[in-house]
Amino acid sequence: MNTVIDKSMDGANYSMVSEFVFLGLSNSWEIQLVLFVFSSMFYVATMMGNSLVVLTVAWDPHLHSPMYFLLANLSFIDLSVSSIISPKMINDIFRKRKVISFGGCIAQIFFIHAIGGTEMVLLIVMAFDRYVAICKPLHYLTVMNKKMCIVLLGASWIIGLIHSVIQLAFAMKLPFCGPNVLDTFYCDLPRFIKLACVDTYKLEFMVTANSGFISLGSFFILIISYIFILITVWKHSSSGSSKALSTLSTHVMVVILFFGPCIFAYTWPQPTSHLDIYFAVFNVVLTPFLNSVIYTLRNKDMKIAMRRLCSQVFVYRRISEMIKVL
Predict the structure, then answer these.
(1) Collapsing DSSP states into helix, strand and coil, what is residue 89?
(2) DSSP label at residue 181
(3) 172 CB contacts (<8 Å, ≥6 apart)?
(4) What span, in angstroms and rounded, lies between the C-alpha atoms of 125 and 116?
(5) Ordered alpha helix ranges (H), the chain
(6) Which residues pair with 50 in a beta bridge?
């Protein structure tokens, strides 16, 4: 049943939707149980894994370099992405009526696009960092100094916020008079604007151009950048190519995991299909977890630093227990 509020616009009466109803992922109790266990497990693992990355980089002086500074910020972004969608999704799995207020829906859209846009730019910054480190190693500390890292990180967040504000600037003016049912588990623009009471063809095209083409463009920029770096390495040093390939393969995997679902969601001609919902689940639940796992398992320095941190925490805990006993 639609919940509406009567208002007036340009002298004409209309009804404004005050909340939206999610259809969710499945009505089957067995599938809901699997989704609940799967989502809860990966959400907890994501929060713990990415928090460990941030704490390790902040704690270990050996990791106070531009690459790990950017990696810690990527983990912070993954923590934010998981916190925006996953808790409500998990809470709603067994609910018969899954609702979100109009303001809550707008807030979800804003933060999803702000953080998503920031992550796109941050991944490009990380590619630039690897280019300078591999292709111009003698100038690395000069180019990627502390001030430059902060400026690039600030630019990433500013661009992400601008991207999100542009998306919402037009959507906020749309009248919503019903229906208020979203065939998904979270709020995002493609399905949200389709519920408006006016023709949204131009706005849908703008959303596709702003999100889809930017995602696709950023993805190709990154892939071309990595190819250029590899070609440069092979030309100058065959012995260093294997190490560069190992480093870049980690970045490429993260890029594919992040951009794959985004490109599909915003360029697929029929965004109401169920396939993009499964991609969204992958992007929300698995990708933030896999990012931390990929960077950790494929980075020797990070693994060593994490072991040092865990062992030191264990020692502190044992000392605290001994003091309590005494």
Answers:
(1) helix
(2) E
(3) 106
(4) 14
(5) 29-59, 66-92, 102-135, 140-143, 146-171, 189-192, 201-207, 214-236, 241-267, 275-281, 287-297, 300-325
(6) none
- Cβ atoms 223, 127 nearer than 8 A: no
86-135 pLDDT per residue, tens:
999 999 988 888 999 988 999 999 999 899 889 989 999 998 998 888 88
Helix/strand/coil for 97: coil
For residue 17, what pLDDT is reported?
Answer: 78
Burial group, residue 183, by CB count within 10 angstroms (0-12, 13-18, 19+): middle
**What distance in Å separates the CA atoms of residue 207 and residue 163, rounded to the nearest whole number?**
10
Check residue 239 and give its pLDDT: 53
Instruction: Please tell me what DSSP assigns to residue 239.
Output: S
Rounded Cα–Cα distance for residues 322 and 252 (Å): 47
| C-beta of residue 74 within 8 angstroms of C-beta of residue 128 | no
Number of neighbouring beta carbons within 10 Å of residue 179: 12
**H-helix or E-strand containing 19?**
strand 19-22
Give dist(CA 170, CA 168) in Å, integer.
5
Widest CA span in the chain:
78
Q: Tell me 141's DSSP state.
A: H
Instruction: Tell me the mean pLDDT in the region 72-78.
Output: 93
- What is the structure's pLDDT at 11? 40
Q: From the CA atom positions of the chain, what is the Rg in Å?
A: 23
In angstroms, the CA 320 to CA 326 distance is 10
- Paired with 13 in beta bridges are 8
- 4 pLDDT above the threshold of 70: no
Q: Which two tokens stand for residue 143?
A: 């180019």
